């Protein structure tokens, strides 16, 4: 676990903790490490879990899928981000999300239930860790609130502008990178990818909104295998 300390130090879950305290906590919560290949599932809907995941390399997508293969992306987690916390903290809760590797990744699983009971070693940093967990959960609520704001717009154009505007504000810039590829962005905003053509255009790897009366941001969208930059 020591090799992951540079990532763990910067994770909000371990905020304010020393390296020794982090390693002690990993022992308390029975931390285990797994490696996953791109497109493999980490959690599946309808399962239950006692552990939450911490991405230490690569990235994963938190998604919802229906029987017809339609995918709704809830969020994307990079190194240092967590997933599955609410379900791990609720014994018996059934997952209504799946988590899939967006690229080859490494995950640390932490048993949340070990945090919700008195630590057998009475470690001084236990309460600090619980406060950090509450902060992590609160941040997830804010992320989902942003998504609800975007998908709640009535038109494809308004959804795109809502998302781009929020990202522009978050980056404090009119130019920024988008963490999703084209299909993922469509899945995140719950729109048909083909609808992009009427509202945005691609120039190399840049995505631009249609001409509008107000200044709108330009963002870089990453390519994935099989992407057509003219779509």
From TrEMBL:
Q: Which Pfam families match?
A: cNMP_binding
CDD domains named among the record's database cross-references: CAP_ED
Q: Which SMART domains does the record cross-reference, listed alphabetically? A: cNMP
**Listed GO cellular component terms?**
cytoplasm
Domain of life of the native organism: Bacteria
Give TM regions.
none
MF annotations from Gene Ontology:
5'-nucleotidase activity; magnesium ion binding; nucleotide binding
Q: What is this protein called?
A: Crp/Fnr family transcriptional regulator
